[in-house]
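Sequence in, structure out.
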Amino acid sequence: MEIHGGFTETMQEGSGDMRRPFLIGERLYLRLLEESDIGEDYLGWLNDVEVTRYLETGRFPSTLETMRKYLNHFRNSTTDMIFAIVDRETDHHVGNVTLNRISWIHRTADTGLMIGRKDFWGKGYAFEAWSLLIEYAFQRLGLRKIIAGAVADNKASIVALEKLGFRVEGTFRREYLIDGEYRDSVRLGLLREEFYKYVQ
């Protein structure tokens, strides 16, 4: 992983077509989500029931204005961060990953992720994006624990999280209404020393 020095870092010399990269992985990089990312493609993700099935969003129609308000929340926050997930080969914005509710006292946060472009599903992009973000949270921010939640039926996310070292800490029965049925959700936690990069 390469880390470029700050949230307003400009493109580094020799970084190819990457636009303001912050965390760089093998196949993707993370940068701050920008106003220019808000458009019809992104709006299509949020209004697609397949993309949002296991997310909090998607219950009501999204608009460009609600998306701008969402972005402004992160711009004005000292405890929430949102990064665009960008494919290095094509420079396409394919999804977002967040670090939320950072407690600078307890050194904890929770995380969420969305891969909006379906042609990038099932190819390990969630694992790589989360890996970059979590390593940053532990190494650069000094956090000690990351929490994630997932609907119990969302096997792909749970597998990716467990591969990163997350452990299921609890089950919430019939927590979410999905496709007309109430589904269980699970909470997963990851301590710094359990992160897969530190235990190999």
